[in-house]
Amino acid sequence: MRPRKLIKRFSFIDVFLWTFRLAVIAIVVVGSIATLAGGRYTGRQWLDFVEFGLAQGGIYALIALGYTMVYGVLNMINFAHGEVFMSGAYTAYFIAVPLGTSGFLARHLLVGLLTILLVAMATSTGVAVLVERVAYRPLRRAPRLVPLITAIGASFFLQYTFRGLYGAGIHSYPDIAALSGDWALGSFHILRTQAIVLLGAVVMMLLLYAVVMRTKIGKAMRAVAEDRDAAALMGINVDGIILFTFALGGAMAGAAGVLYALVFKQVHFFMGFVPGIKAFTSAVLGGIGNIPGAMLGGLFLGIVESVGPALFLDGLGIRAPYQLRDVIGFTMLLIMLIFRPQGILGERLAAKRA
Amino acid sequence: MYLCLVGVVETFRTRWIVADVAGLGQAFVFICMLAAGYVAARRAADTGTLRAVSEGAGAGLLAGALPAALLLLGGAIPLRTVFINASPALFELLSLGLPPSQGSLGLLLVGAAAGAGGAIVSRIPPAARRAFLWGVLAVLLLSIFQDLLQLLLQPRGVSSAIRDLLFSPDGPSFRGAAIICVLTWATSAGGTLLGYARERRGVGAAGGSRRTRLALMALALAGLLLLPIAGGLFVAQVMVLVGLYILMGLGLNLEVGFAGLLDLGFVAFFAIGAYTVALLTSRGEHGIAHMSFWAAIPVAVAVSLVAGVIFGIPVLRVRGDYLAIATLGLGEIVRLLVLSDALEPWLGGSFGVLAIPKPVIAGYELSGPRQLYYLTVVASALIAYVAWRLQDSRLGRAWMAIREDEDVAQAIGINLVTTKLLAYGIGGAMGGIGGAIFAVMLGSVFPHSFQLLISINVLVLIILGGMGSIWGVIVGALVLVGLPELLREFGEFRFLIYGIVLVAMMLFRPEGLLPAAAQKLELHAEEPPAPEASAAVS
Amino acid sequence: MRHRSVLIALALCVLLATGVPFAAPAPAATMGPVSDPIGVVKIDAGAPIVIASWLVTSGPNGALGTDSQRGIEIAIDDVGGKVLGHAIKLISEDSGCNAEGGQTAATKIAANADVVAAIGSSCSSEAVPGAPILWKAGIVTVSPSNTAPKLTDPMRGPDYDGYLRTAHNDKIQGAVAATFARNVLRKSRAATIHDGSPYAQGLANAFAENFQKMGGTITSQEAISVGDTDMHPVLTRIATGKPDMIFYPIFVAEGGFITRQAKDVSGLAGVTLFGADGLFTPDFLKAAGDSAQGMYWSSPDLTPEALGPRYAQDFLVKYKKKYGETPTAAFHPHAYDAAMIVFAAIRKVARAQGGALYIGRKALRDALFATRNFKGLTGTITCNQYGDCADPHIAVYQSVSADPAKWNPGVDPKKVYPMGKP
User: Fold this and answer.
1) Model ipTM?
2) Residues C158, C46: one domain?
């Protein structure tokens, strides 16, 4: 092609976007090299970073699974999902404490944990279903913006209801002796809590995947995700399926809440907001509507947040890099949205990779 | 019961509607029961009066049963460890000081009576009912706004005398409440009578409307201009905040309402405008040039505009919902950057930028909320004018085309890129102006003022007022920003009410309070038989 | 046509904006027997003296403001609810621990012409915009818990002429903490963490400065964001500098995470943890659990040795009786003292005539700034010309049992510095 035509093809926008991409790559590369050259961190510490990131990412992944499912089926972002997560964790706190202080947890660890888990999951499922019935169902056919706003409203409502119910203070889950300390696999140490979280996340994901891909109800979910009206014409009870989706997502959020509380110990009414946003970011990163994608996105975000500041920013001499960890996370999101909007693994709950 | 637990009742324990006679908290419970009865009677609209009353009583009974159950439960087990507002004081309030068993019985009785009362209210002729309801509402409002009213009526003379008439040191006096109630009834009755008279005369709306409209406008204008003088410092301050939100709302309205681009990171432009002015005018350590405010404003506008364009570019091809999270990310990035230690030497970090001087016109300093109020009014009027002209311009139509359907818009030859970027840029510039005034209002800028919450606030007020409608933005700002400030003791429940309002608005009136005509048609046309269908299914 | 009317309206606005000085109230006032360049408050016979408080009483930091509010209420009780025969009426505004909250609360108070003096704010970020607003209306304010050095800095400007505080200046707290760490604990390498709030950053900086002046090394100064939950990475980064202590003057939520997670990070074994008054509350022990055992705090000294029997046997008893619990924060005695010096100043400058009381605003302000050797709960109150009135007793505490139920400042956690000082 003639040079002039070539230049015309590249609009100003493309130039800008490419500069942006290059700038980010430059920062990443230069920063990383500088950090690694500076030798401030040992290999062991890099491994630690990755490990911590994986654990945190596991939490994001768990919450993201719920987001992704609802989006896949309903094409709607459930902003209130973070609050569903919070409701489970917070309510279960009231069971956890007496169980812990009475020593029941220490003696019958599994039963105790299961009880806590059950309470949490029941609460969050209840909340999720309630929100769906009251706030989302009447708005199913409304333009995109309306359910989004409703979700934001529901999110506020839930936060402050729980604040009114349980108070604005911070509460802590009891320490469980069996879960503290770490496991050593050869020279590789991993904290028990981190292991539990990761394990839990993987289990949940597999469960969810199994439900969606292998069961009849999962098939119905995929049908509704594909084309709601056609599914209805096929005799699928769309309302029921949607309810089930929310319930499932809620249950998972509740489980995620308990795991979170076991690791981080603190629960309070605002605890769902930031993880909610991070989880949504993860879901988008991995490909929204895609279950393994949510998992991957969550882990990816966790690692980036953990390793990123140290790796990229430290070398550039930036002070207090961890204050900027969210900046890195969101920049990653932006890059993904610009250059690969469908996420790492692509979208669609329903699609069989064709 | 919900209300009780959430603590509304507890908080308002000390707020008397009529001093020493009725408390606001108890009133809420009572109103719930009344409302239950009313609704039940409404449903049974066709049946005879007696039947309706009994249905109403039944509903009221149910409404009373829940708090009664709470009372009994609370007596038996210590609920307080879990539900912190289930305190002894609450129980005392509910049972009116009687022991639990008697108290719960009392609640049931009161519930039934209130429910029956509600049913009766639904039966009386509309005119009288309206009068009654207005009267009750007025008394409630008197109680809720007592702080503010007392403040307004403070200056010596006539107003102070009025204040003494209506209020006692603890709250509205019985005398005051009675006066207000009777006044409202009289006004309402008078209004109804006037309505009848007009109907009989058959005067059409057209005739005197032009003149009345102009008169109303003049009145409104006068009110607007005299507000800070009449209302005092606090009201002026609140109005300045309202004005700032109007500015931001207009900007976001451009993006969301006209062009359909959802932006949750709008606070970034606000921050950029504020920091630009701060850095350019501050007399402190971070000020780079010691410009005057008026010189700094065009720079702030330009910087925000450019920022808008820069933000717009990465998200040009991003779709609907992702746009929300992407813009949210951008907003957070800006906030974190201005907060960071890394940029502290230039931007002040968490300490912010201080010592921002107030703007000076011809030697006179706009030092207080009153003067800044006028500045804000001028700015808002200007921007509203710009927005209004844009709405009907070619650019505005291009935006609306994009909002409806991007692909079709492109097909008819609209350059998506330029149009969208202009939306971001101009919207951003408007937000920047708001930020500039914010900076001089506070005299300093702190990163903590630029939270995500503000973006959401602005979005909500646009939705509330009506997307795409300029008057809607103004109304939305007044309601959403003005009211909570004026009702500060509701502070704890502000966001709760927020959430409820949002959900309720979306469910019942998604086009907002003062919608642009097109929106209304659009949103209601999309509501097909769905309500009936789902009612049939469930 | 419409454009014209709009333009006319705009022109009117501009005119009014410049013409507004006519609406501003006249500055100097003479009422009754009192003449004052700023203004005079008249309190009719039988009417109350109105004192306003602007503290953070809701939200996560609500305990701080509520605790101070209680200090004020006890002070009012102690003077019998009256000063010079007029009842004291306390109006309270919630200031939210942020700049806009402080500004709005201050504006609301400033709009009320009956207010004689104010007590507040709780958080330093509120006072920065709020104090000038109050002073513009002639209302002087005494803060019980603002500790940011900037507020009483000599270069603060005339807007803050009406601002005083009975709380210590954080420069002092930072110095005490550093002195203890360096001289008593013999630490040589320290890292600091702040959370992006001006209070935390100011205190961390003060600590770092002093520590370095005494020959110590600051290995790194980190920052986290409020709402962060995973502190492992930033702790790992700190670990690379091999510090022997970490000073983190932040608040309960993040402080709890750091305390718990520090032991998970390799390289931080044996590192001493050191918090400040933001963490000095039983809520923190709930959040941190057993990992708080053995850690240190710097906080106002509330032990009987420092504050004397008046605090322990008189004030605390009253507090417990009236509110049913032990104090939830550390600044209640400062609030008590703030109220007391205000009352003393009112007594000094108020003039009675015909049953009514007249108080000159500037006179009140001057009287407050002239407070000398006032025996307060927190020590001897003497105000300097920039508003620092405190007799700062900062102590360092060490945790004994980390059990929130056993919280008793001075005993558990026990006071470890300074010892034997009055």
Assistant:
1) 0.84
2) yes
